[in-house]
Amino acid sequence: MIKPLGSRVLIKMKEGEETTKSGIILASAAQEKPQIAEVIEVGPGEKIDSKLEEMYVKKGDNIIINKYSGTEVKYEGTEYLIVKQDDILAIVE
């Protein structure tokens, strides 16, 4: 398993929509990149001025991230992203 370091978070992107609201099927190149992801693992946080930075997300949360942020990682046939906590915009409840 991948365990992120510092204030990094391992996420798995949710699939993008393949059809529009009116029912038109989109080619993969025309699909918008999804911004909602599931948190798979969370790093321990970073020490800033000898105080540990709080991690606001936890394993299993659905989050919204900045478009095109993070580092892509493929592990055991599954694609993940590693992002910094600062790239997370919101938690979806």
Main-sheet strand order equals 6-7-1-2-5-8
Note the overall shape.
Answer: globular
Helicity range of the residues? under 10%
Mean pLDDT metric: 84
Portion in beta strands: 35-45%
For the sheet with most strands, the description reads:
6 strands, antiparallel
Distance between the termini: 26 Å
Structural class: mainly beta
Q: Total number of helical segments?
A: 0
Give me the strand/helix succession.
EEEEEEEE
- C-alpha Rg (nearest Å): 15 Å
Give the strand tally.
Answer: 8
- Unreliable stretches (pLDDT < 50, length at least 5) are none
Structure description:
- The chain is mainly β and 93 residues long.
- The protein has strands spanning 8-13, 36-42, 47-48, 51-52, 62-65, 71-75, 78-84, 88-92.
- The strands form 2 sheets. A 6-stranded antiparallel β-sheet has the order 6-7-1-2-5-8, with no helix packed on it. The protein has a two-stranded antiparallel sheet with strand order 3-4.
- A hairpin with a 2-residue loop joins strand 3 (47-48) and strand 4.
- It starts with 7 loop residues before the first strand and ends with a strand.
- The mean pLDDT is 84.
